[in-house]
């Protein structure tokens, strides 16, 4: 029986085939896997660069390109006959001698580019790699056949010209050297291309190289597994090396924090980590995020990934608010009543209008309702302050308006007024529930896995996605919900994508972490990423760890178009332009499920949705908040105009609290940044009138 491995490019090519041809090709691969008498047989390629490369006739006028060594077959791609033969002739397969992963080379294209490089080298100039001898380059895995080309290069432009022709494990370390980096820097780039260490590399051992390359190949043992691989989205099967490493590491001795920008695959890592822990069957698992909408999306994606019903049931997927609500409900024997946002706003306005002073005396000093709310959530609830004395002694990070002892007393009494009014009516806020749930769980967490007390929520592992938007009270709940043990907390987030004004260093809430950082965006091309970083502001962001996290080193792979920014004279013209653009995308063959439209206001969302539906177009239309955690091929963000983005009513007056206003502006930038970075292929941004000050010039 042949051992069959499948590449992601093969599945991509399969998905692009007409349905009858695709069905025929899948049946042919199944027969080949089962070694049936009617199975296609490998056909040799004349004048090929690699004798191991062959083709398989999979369907009418379509062939698969396969690499064969002994009984191992690696399906590379499926193409129309002529293109398949050309692909098979052009390419050769190698094993990186430094890290032992498989590499695919367009050898013919490299041969064609050699004369141009030779001519360029005659014009003079300092050789690009003259500081490194051949042995240095070979030691970082550079293929010996590439050395003559490298010696002709005199500029980074020469190396950039061959980037599309090289495996990433070849280009990445060479690019580091070309930028002036050291061999150590080149090794760091090379390490990011592998999932596991290779004790010894045999360049002729294709089987071992494929097993070291889970982003390039997946083995299928039977027809059922083949069907599953073909039916699932690629992210279910193939992980990039850093994603695979972090998701599948056998055991972490302490809580882990993985940070990374948009498109680095944090959610995919979270899903695969939860699935790995579920298969290990060491105890119940919680996969948690900050909103119920995202939790629903995560649950659906986990359903796709995990076919075994028993394994899937070991993972609970939810958001922190619902978990807190359930814990308090079970402890109290009834569901707690929640205060509405409008009623809560009224209570804070009431507190701001009143004059509370010590011993009932009146005071002439007042604080705005927004100021009091932030002080309660960001200082008092965040630090779980229970008494005036604790509040008087507490630090107030992120709060720029200084408060002396008298002012703090006034604030405390105003806060107690609101808490008292809530208690009188039997209502609570979600953050109050999180704080109370943490207290319920925190008294005896160690025995949660044994005989648990009523109202306790026992988890053996917790995986947290979108961690940057959780409040300290919610973190205390999660810390209390899982015993401190190996593989207890696995946390993923990005402070630069924060959508709420919550800033917390995990160590301050009892979660010291070991941190890892993802730098490569696999979704965003450099053109879109650099534009997005300028839109975001590019500066450091605080939260999750002590100090600030910058965007240094964050970069995209491949190349793509720059964002399309369109100006319109009137809002009506802008909506007409949106309808025309989305219609063009559909005409180009982009599925409706791969298109999204986003706007800052509910009115704009309704207007866009109505206009698209009247044109017979049904795609996702959401507010900027609703784009969190999603990804699409093409995204249109409309209404990015001054007076709409940033939203005026979302900004604290500068006279009241300049730091809060700065945070509000950065949060608004973050909202727009998150929506714009959902697009993997094309981003369209429009406005009427004057552009938002956030848009890059």
TrEMBL record:
GO terms for molecular function: helicase activity. Its EC number is 5.6.2.4. It catalyses: Couples ATP hydrolysis with the unwinding of duplex DNA by translocating in the 3'-5' direction; ATP + H2O = ADP + phosphate + H(+). Keywords: ATP-binding, Helicase, Hydrolase, Isomerase, Nucleotide-binding. It comes from the Bacteria. ATP binds at residues 260-267. Residues 239-536 form the UvrD-like helicase ATP-binding domain. The keyword Isomerase applies. Pfam families: UvrD-helicase, UvrD_C. PANTHER family: DNA 3'-5' HELICASE, UVRD / RECB / PCRA DNA HELICASE FAMILY MEMBER. This is DNA 3'-5' helicase. It comes from Microbispora amethystogenes.
